[in-house]
Specification:
Elements (H helix, E strand, L loop, with lengths): L1 E5 L3 H14 L4 E5 L2 H11 L3 E5 L7 H10 L8 E5 L5 H10 L3 E4 L4 H66 L3 E6 L4 E4 L1 H6 L11 H5 L4 H15 L5 E8 L5 E12 L5 E10 H48 L7 H24 L8 E4 H16 L3 E6 L6 E4 L1 H18 L4 E11 L11 E9 L6 H6 L17 H11 L3 E6 L5 E8 L23 E5 L3 H13 L3 E5 L2 H11 L5 E5 L7 H11 L5 E5 L3 H6 L8 E3 L4 H12 L2
Parallel strand pairs: 1-2, 1-3, 3-4, 4-5, 12-14, 18-19, 18-20, 20-21, 21-22
Antiparallel strand pairs: 6-7, 6-10, 8-9, 9-10, 11-13, 14-15, 15-17, 16-17
Helix pairs in contact: 2-3, 9-10, 9-15, 10-14, 11-12, 12-14, 16-17
Length: 662
């Protein structure tokens, strides 16, 4: 045991040391001659008992006891106060109040000294043991609390994950277009998801979860097939995957695909089977849409294949016809004939553009303008399209509807719809065009989000049945007699709307008229809207030198004539290689290069790149009769000047002047 004696009298410490050696030899004595030093030694040595003299200078034994008992490091060490007044009860009371554990009187009684020390050591050891036990229990409680807390956190996380999985499964069940089913083969219990019942026209609580709900609704001709397929599947021979018919609430038969997978026990006996039914109406619709897309793609390929040559021919026909018109007076007997030639060429050009439009291969000239203003502009000449016996009404939204569209193509959409409405109202009626706005894609065909401008075109005509409405946009589909329609008008409308990243839908019933709804994405912010009716001025003549590159000799001669007649100096080239050589030889005098994109030896894009190396600020105007996708595949970039064939002479002259004056 370790003892600490604190006494300012050295003789008392020597006496105590001698007594302990004689009567308690196993004790180790540490001494200190002041209260401050004794408190310090107690904290350092951690003795089993402290013998503390009361009467000491500076700090007496009472104050030292208070400080020892107040410190966490020494408060558990027993303190024996040593007093010279055995019978001084007031001194003992004060000592007890300070925290003393026992008292000894001087001079020491050897037996009492040893007994007191041993008692204090026993008390301290017991308290230390209790304290260790308490600390051990507290540590154990803390560990168990931490473990329980962690287990509680994990339990909450597991419950949360379980809830999320249940919610995810529930959403999947609610959101899927398939109906789910589960069959316990042991108990013969059935489960049908709400969607399973909904496909047959029932609410969840209107059809019982029993095997009979399925088997009694099978088409009689399908029952044996289902039973044979189930038996074969239970034997593990074939998958269960059938197309069959189920009777709906309306006593009609719905064609569905039924798939399932069984579970077997250890003995190889089937104990459970789960699966889905899928409404085959959606697949049939998708297959029909695929056939429609393939048909339109085939027509598009046909149109694209002949577009270049056909447009070159039309450019020549329309060009020379317009030149003849300029040379003739309106009183000439030939003026009307030439006018008919020009009009026929324009109709052929429109047909070509229409073919390319519905196959989405037509090059676009998009402008940012107000859709309502386009409708107002078209309204001015729609009366001539629909005839006097049909009343034209417009309901235009007062605020602007900014869209990025090709004006000519949108006008063609409205004209085609007006012509379709006219044919549906042989006895007269009302034709209405309205504009509006919607948030998101209300028609839901393309899934495009954002605000859309809306055009609603309706008539009070004969209407259409479901079959006609479904096929209305097919190319070459028509209900008109032979020679009264090409079957391309509505297909062109569909293609133009799709090319503008829009949607179109039709709603019609026999005898109740027809409504077409068109959505086109709105353009937020940006530059100011361009006017629909741009002022048309006569093309100015010029004296500049223009290098023309065109591989078709007829088109080349026409362009040479048109430009030369209006004062321009023309240099001709037959292909891309020649245009580069001509430009390199006479670059200082050439103010504009007018060239076709697709030419032999070197195409226009390649020639353009070499011309730019020779003269970076050279002005170039491209022409082409090819489809937009074909041009882009040859490296055509956005922002270059391009005019599409067939092009009227006046249009060509205006575009040439526009590029020259930039």
């Amino acid at each position: 045991m370790k003892l600490l004696a604190i006494d300012d009298n050295q003789d008392n410490l020597l006496t105590l040391s001698a007594l302990l050696k004689a009567f308690l030899p196993q004790a180790q004595l540490i001494t200190s001659q002041s209260a401050q030093d004794g408190i310090r030694r107690a904290g350092m040595e951690a003795p089993d008992t402290i013998l503390l003299d009361i009467q000491m200078p500076g700090m007496d034994g009472f104050e030292a006891t208070r400080r020892l008992k107040a410190s966490p490091a020494t408060q558990h060490i027993p303190v024996i106060l040593v007093t010279a007044h055995r019978s001084d009860s007031a001194c003992r009371v004060m000592g007890l109040e300070c925290g003393a554990d026992a008292f000894l009187s001087k001079p020491f009684d050897e037996a009492e000294l040893v007994a007191q020390i041993k008692a204090m050591v026993r008390i301290k050891k017991s308290e230390d043991a209790l304290r260790r036990e308490r600390d051990s229990l507290e540590a154990l409680v803390q560990r168990r609390t931490a473990q329980l807390s962690q287990a509680n956190v994990e339990l909450k996380e597991n419950l949360e994950r379980l809830a999320q999985n249940e919610a995810r499964y529930s959403r999947a069940v609610r959101g899927t277009s398939d109906g789910l089913w589960d069959w316990d083969l042991v108990s013969n219990d059935y489960y049908y998801s709400p969607r399973w019942k909904e496909l047959l026209g029932f609410a969840d609580d209107e059809l019982e979860n029993r095997p009979e709900s399925f088997f009694s609704r099978l088409h009689p001709d399908d029952l044996a097939v289902v039973q044979d397929s189930l038996c074969s599947h239970f034997l593990g021979q074939t998958p269960f995957d059938l197309e069959l018919r189920l009777r709906t609430r309306g006593e009609e038969y719905l064609r569905v695909r039924c798939r399932g997978q069984a579970e077997w026990d250890g003995a190889g006996e089937p104990v459970r089977m789960s699966g889905v039914i899928t409404d085959m109406t959606e697949r049939q619709l998708m297959e029909e849409q695929l056939r429609q897309a393939q048909k339109m793609e085939a027509v598009g390929q046909l149109a694209g294949g002949v577009a270049h040559d056909f447009n070159n021919v039309l450019t020549v026909i329309a060009g020379y016809a317009n030149i003849l018109k300029m040379d003739l007076t309106s009183e000439s007997v030939h003026y009307g004939l030439v006018d008919q030639i020009a009009a026929a060429a324009e109709r052929a050009a429109q047909l070509t553009r229409g073919l390319l439009a519905f196959s989405r291969k037509q090059a676009m000239n998009p402008q940012r303008c107000d859709l309502s203003e386009i409708v107002r502009h078209v309204e001015q000449f729609l009366g001539r399209v629909i005839g006097e016996d049909i009343q034209l009404k417009t309901e235009i939204l007062p605020e602007p509807l900014p869209v990025q569209v090709d004006l000519a193509q949108i006008e063609q959409v409205l004209v085609n719809l007006a012509a379709n409405a006219r044919d549906a109202m042989p006895g007269g009626g009302v034709f209405t065009i309205a504009t509006g706005m919607c948030d998101g894609s209300g028609l839901g065909h393309s899934g495009r989000s954002g605000r859309h401008a809306v055009i609603i075109v309706s008539d009070s005509g004969e209407g259409m049945d479901d079959e006609t409405s479904r096929r209305i946009f097919e190319p070459f589909f028509t209900t008109k007699g032979v020679g009264k329609g090409t079957g391309l008008g509505m297909a062109i409308v569909y293609g133009i709307v799709q090319q503008h990243k829009g949607n179109i839908a039709v709603s019609s019933n026999p005898g109740q008229g027809t409504v077409f709804t068109i959505e086109i994405p709105l353009v937020e912010g940006g530059a100011a809207l361009q006017p629909v009716l741009a002022p048309q001025t006569s093309p100015q003549t010029g004296t500049e030198t223009i290098l023309v590159a065109e591989d078709d000799p007829n088109v080349r001669s026409l362009v040479d004539m048109v430009l030369s007649r209006h004062g321009y100096q023309v240099i001709l080239a037959e292909d891309g290689e020649e245009v580069v050589h001509r430009f390199a030889a006479e670059q200082e005098g050439i103010e504009l290069v007018l060239m076709d994109i697709i030419m032999p030896r070197k195409n226009g894009i390649e020639a353009y790149a070499e011309i730019k190396k020779i003269q970076p600020d050279a002005k170039v105007l491209f022409t082409s009769g090819y489809t937009a996708d074909f041009i882009q595949s040859r490296g055509m970039k956005e922002g270059v000047e391009l005019i599409m064939k067939p092009v009227q002479p006046m249009e060509l002259l205006r575009k040439v002047r526009e590029v020259l004056e930039r």
